[in-house]
Amino acid sequence: MSGEDLLQLLADAEDVGYIGESVSQLAHALQCAALAAERDGSDALVAASLLHDIGHLCAAADAPTMAGLGVLDHETIGGDAARSAGLGEDVASLITSHVAAKRYLVARSDSYRRKLSPASQGTLEFQGGPMSPDEVRRFEADPLAESILRLRAWDEEAKNPEITVPSLESYRGVLQRLASV
Ligand code: FE
Fold it and tell me: Would you write out the chain's pLDDT as a tens digit for each of its 181 residues?
C-alpha cells in the first residue's frame, strides 16, 4: 500500500468509530496529527500521529481482535504498513511503539492508569499489561522514546467530538516528502 492508499483508508473511516470513544477514526487521526503539527512535530511525528491507528483499518478482515476493542497488534500492522509505503523507519517505529508507550506510562504511574479511558484500560491486558522493569529500561534507552511519549499524549488528547481541524488533504505533502527521502 502507498501513502495515498493509507490516506484513502482514513478518508473512508469518516464513519468508522474509534473504538469506545466518541469520535470517528478519521477525526481521531486528524486531531492527533493537528496536535503534532501545532506543537512543532517533525514530518515524521506528524505522519506517525496521523497514521498511528491505521492498523485498525488496514488489517486483514480475519485479523484477531481484542474482544470488540479493535485489532490485536494493530500497532505492528500499522508500523509495517507505513514502512512498506516508504514513509521511513522513524514513522514505522513511532507507530509500532505507541502501545508500548501506554505500557510504559502505566508501569511508571498509577494515576496515569486511572486516567486511561475505559476502552484503553480494556485493551491494556491484551497488549501485555504494564511493562516489566527490564522493558522500562529498554524503552527509556530508545532514542525515539521522547517522541513516542509525545505522540501518546496527543493520541489521548485527540478525542474531542467538537473541534474542527485541518483536513486530510493538508497532510499529503508531508507523506510525499517522507516517501521521497
Ligand atoms: Fe489512537
Answer: 999 999 999 999 998 888 777 899 999 999 999 999 999 789 999 999 999 999 999 999 999 999 888 999 999 999 999 999 999 999 999 999 999 999 999 999 999 999 998 888 999 999 999 999 999 999 999 999 999 999 999 999 999 989 999 999 999 999 999 999 7
**From the CA of 113, how far away is ligand 1's center (Å)?**
16
Kindly give the distance from the C-alpha atom of residue 78 to the centroid of ligand 1, in angstroms, as a whole number: 11
> Residue 100 C-alpha to ligand 1 middle, in angstroms?
13
CATH of the domain at 137: 1.10.3210.10
71 has which bridge partners? 65
From the CA of 102, how far away is ligand 1's center (Å)? 11
* Interatomic CA distance for residues 60 and 115, integer angstroms: 31
The rounded Å distance from CA 151 to ligand 1 centre is: 9
Q: How many angstroms separate the CA atoms of 126 and 67, rounded?
A: 9
Q: Residue 174: name the closest of 84, 42, 83, 23 by CA.
A: 42
Which range marks the domain in which residue 100 is found?
3-180
**From ligand 1's centre to the CA of 21, what distance in Å?**
10
How does DSSP classify residue 63? -
Span from the CA of 57 to the centroid of ligand 1 (angstroms): 12
Domain count for the chain, please give it: 1
Q: What is the pTM of this model?
A: 0.94
